[in-house]
Fold this protein.
Amino acid sequence: MKRKVLAGAAAVAVFASAVAGYRLGSGIGPSTHAAVAATAAAQSNPAQRTVLYWKDPDGKSDFSPEPKKTPDGRDYLPVYEDEEAGFKSEKPPKPQGNPKILYYRNPMGLPDVSPAPKKDSMGMDYIPVYEGEMEDGSTVKISPGKLQRTGVRSEVVSKRTLLTSIRAPGVVQADEHRQAVVALRFDAFLNELEHITTGSKVTRGEPLMRVYSSALSAAAAQYVTDLGLRDPGGMPANRGAHQRLENLGVPDEIIKDIERSRQGSLTVVWPAPRDGYIIEHNVVEGMQAKAGDVLFRIADLSVVWVLADVAERDLGLIAPGQKATVTPRGYPDRTFTGTIGLIYPVLNKETRTARVRIELANPDTILRPNMYADVVIESGGHQPVIAVPESAIISSGMRQVAIVDKGQGRFEPRDIKTGMRGDGYIEVKDGITEGDKVVVAANFLIDAESNLKAALQGLAAGDTK
């Protein structure tokens, strides 16, 4: 009779352990097929097997410490001890030697400890925690069965080159160094204009207009007069007239024409100062132009700038000289590679962005001013760094933690300092060394276990005082 009572109590305890294991584990009980096979084995040799509990024949999460029937009259299926090792309470092995027992912890993982052996409300023995088992207090030990059920996976830490792609919107602008304006240093009348309009392409020396000015005519006549004069020392006496023409901004081509022809003219042909496109046209034939008026603006578009707006948080990842890839939105199949020439010193306070200037070669002039473009700046990649997958980092806002796999089911949470990110990895500057193994899956479960162990140690320390 006493044996039957003890067997019944053990069955109740194992049943409660199985239910708890079901709740904490994968959420499913033993398979129906396995239970049917177990029943057949028990019927063939019932004396050698012990029934732990009975379960619903449909696989529902319903268990019983004694035989039971479903509402429709079917028998619950027995589950035997040798078939349900996964639901047994996983007690850690006793360390070698005769270590001191520090305290006893709740077998269900509840925050309850005892300085002496005891049982819980379901009759399960409390599990002893030996001296040295917790190592430095931060190491967590997990049994192989639990590791398999929780899906813990580790990866060896290694050095790798990280590349971070910084994306920013940009707009094409003409190179400020490759622009020129046509303006006269004297009052003049524009008698004739060439057939040149806004957008026309011109080359250096190409005629733009014919200009008449009394000041220009007088200076040219004086230069012609002085060309044949020589001073007694054999030096040319036309320095003053030549200098006057230069002061009026007369191009060298016009001065050489006067020297060759030895005669002045009422009008002169004014040439384009450089190659480029007419982006501003402010002249009308017959008009009078005042000194300093901008008549034409010419821009050389063989090299252009792309001004990209980079977010403030990414400024530390870029520097002048880095390569950038530009894709114009009007030509999504074309990409251009340029170099960061300047990071502007002032941020836009509304958008919290900094303007970055990228210089691009534009030989076929497909890039036009004010065209939108998408910019990608590849940062990093200079030298390998210690990096771990992003999934290995547990961030709580104030601190970042990685779980180090020390082997044999032992895990240690470590505070780390992180750096740059890229390609799904995060640089680790401190806390982990090359060759360590870090948990990359189910690390949150181990972190929770570590926090629980620390709490239990604190409770144990309080009880022993």
Remarks:
- Residues 2-87 form one domain.
- The chain has four domains: 2-87, 148-161+384-440, 166-175+301-380, 185-292.
